[in-house]
Design a protein that fits this description.
The chain has 8 helices and 6 strands, in the order βααβαβαααβααββ. The chain has helices spanning 13-16, 30-46, 59-71, 98-105, 107-115, 152-173, 183-194, 198-201; strands at residues 2-8, 52-55, 79-81, 176-181, 212-216, 222-227. The radius of gyration is 17 Å and the shape is globular. Helix content is 39%, strand content 14%. It is of the alpha/beta class. Strand 2 (52-55), helix 3 and strand 3 (79-81) form a beta-alpha-beta unit. The chain has a 6-stranded mixed β-sheet with strand order 3-2-4-1-5-6.
């Protein structure tokens, strides 16, 4: 039996401040680090020992993985970092307080930006300091790969390429694969694993620091899924 574990990063500084984070590279809070440690301990207690790791380019996911791996004494397990697993890019909303944004644009509009499947928030301009092209970690990407904003649909499309080209082949080679990433990129993976519709995935909320285990048969059909 194969297992895929989805682990959303622990609480981040901007989670705590109720800000739109997206691709902004903020770190974990002390509580987030504790969530990551407990996640590792839960996997250890359950006898689930990952053999390959995936994570994004953002340190809140990377540090969550490192802390959880240390708690399992499995720091030596190989890891692949891939930008396709980054959080959804929230465009010009990144860094804004969610409550203040709702006051400015109205609760209904912010709800549409956050919870609709295919509506993008306002885009960044190319001269905005937040534009990913200004970040050295994305210098190797083509212009059309760098988002100025994303809907959930856009996020799912880029995560799908990571699933098909990187994650799925590793599941064939290893019995247990752990993906430490973000709320929306993990929702994309859950949507593919569970064959959810766009309407169904909108209702899926993934808590921080809680390992979500998917047990798969040899054809990658989900036999069972549960949180530790």
């Amino acid at each position: 039996m194969k297992k895929v574990i989805l682990l959303r990063h622990g609480q981040s500084l901007w989670n705590l401040e109720n800000r739109f984070t997206g691709w902004t590279d903020v770190d974990l809070t002390d509580e987030g680090r504790e969530e990551a440690r407990k996640a590792g301990e839960k996997m250890l207690e359950a006898g689930i020992f990952p053999e390959y790791y995936f994570t994004s380019y953002l340190k809140r996911a990377i540090h969550t993985l490192q802390i959880a791996a240390s708690a399992m004494d499995r720091d030596w397990v190989p890891v692949k970092k891939d930008w396709h697993l980054n959080e959804r890019h929230y465009g010009a909303l990144q860094g804004l307080n969610k409550a203040e944004t709702a006051k400015q644009y109205g609760d209904e509009q912010v709800h549409i930006w956050r919870r609709s499947y295919d509506v993008q928030p306002p885009a960044l301009s190319l001269d905005d300091p937040r534009y990913p092209g200004n970040d050295t970690r994305y210098m190797h990407l083509a212009y059309d790969e760098l988002p100025l904003t994303e809907s959930l649909k856009d996020t799912i499309a880029r995560v799908k390429s990571c699933w098909e080209e990187l994650i799925s082949p590793k599941i064939h080679l290893y019995n247990i694969v752990l993906v430490s990433a973000h709320g929306n990129s993990l929702r994309a993976l859950a949507m593919m694993l569970l064959h959810l519709t766009p309407e169904e995935i909108m209702d899926v909320e993934i808590p921080t620091g809680s390992p979500w285990v998917f047990e798969l048969d040899d054809h990658f059909s989900v036999l069972k899924n549960y949180y530790l």
